[in-house]
Design a protein that fits this description.
24% strand; 169 residues; 6-stranded mixed β-sheet; GTP binding; Rossmann fold; 4 helices; GTPase activity; binds guanosine-5'-diphosphate; alpha/beta
Amino acid sequence: MLTAKVMLLGDMGVGKTSILYRLIYNRFEGQYKSTLGVEILSHDVVPADGSDPMRLVLWDTDGDFGTQIFDTVYVTGASAAIIVSDVTRPQTVTRMVELVRGFEERFPGRPYRALLNKIDLPEAVGSAGAIAELAKSLGKSSVKSVSAKTGVGIAESFVELAQTIRRRQ
Ligand code: GDP
């Protein structure tokens, strides 16, 4: 089976672990231990177009690294990245943009998705303008609003990413 390493990046508390639990177990739990260093999970994505499944090896990293993650061995061999922010905390969106730029610099041309998480929260309503701006600056197809809590947007993001990885290989 085609296997691809995918980095999960983003500040602490934006929902990286919750997104992976939603993707893999279709569950949401209120509380997770914060990831120390790195946790590696594997998930097979079955594309809707009937093509072969792809194994994503998902590296859930400790958000404390910031953009210095790109200077560590954790990112070696990454095919793609899922870069996450919490839409109710603007500073995490700024950090997400920095991480996108860092990823593009370190891995030119490799696919990524920028996920604006927690759109289920009422505070997310005020951020529609900022989301539109971001979508414009990063390229619309790379940005998606999601919720690990309700599940909206999660599975699709990983399927689309897997399809993009396959097209580029
Ligand atoms: P990580 O540090 O990026 O891995 O973030 P976690 O997955 O540990 O999530 C941090 C907190 O945000 C936890 O209390 C989660 O329950 C909560 N959380 C994560 N995703 C969502 C979401 O989509 N909606 C809401 N309302 N809370 C979320």
